[in-house]
Design brief:
2 helices, single chain, 2 domains
Length: about 120
Amino acid sequence: MHWGYYRSISDAHASEMASRAESKATTLQGRLKVLEDRIDSLALVCQGMWELLSESVPDAEMVLANKIEEIDLRDGKLDGKMNRVHKTCPRCDRPLHQRHLKCIYCGEGTYPEHVFQS
C-alpha cells in the first residue's frame, strides 16, 4: 500500500516537472524567435551600410576593419565585443536600463541614439 502511494506521488511530481519543462521550452522558443528576428533586422541594416560604404569609400574594407577595432577597444579590450555604455536619466540622474523605454524611477522617456539600439 505504501509503495502505491509513493509511486502515485512520484508520478505526479514527474508529470509536474515535465509540464514545467515544456512551458519553459515554449517560452524559450518565443524568446529565440524574437532574437532571430532582431539578428535578421540588424543583418539587413549592416548589409545596407556596407553597400553604401563600399560604393563611396576607397579601401572600404580596410576602413571598416579599422573602425571595428576602434569601437572594440573602447572598453580597453580587443575581444570582438561591444560592451554597453551605462547611461543615467537626464531628469533624476539614476541608472537607465537599456530595455526600458522610460526611466523606472521618474518616468522620463528614453530614445535610441542610433538604429542599432532597441
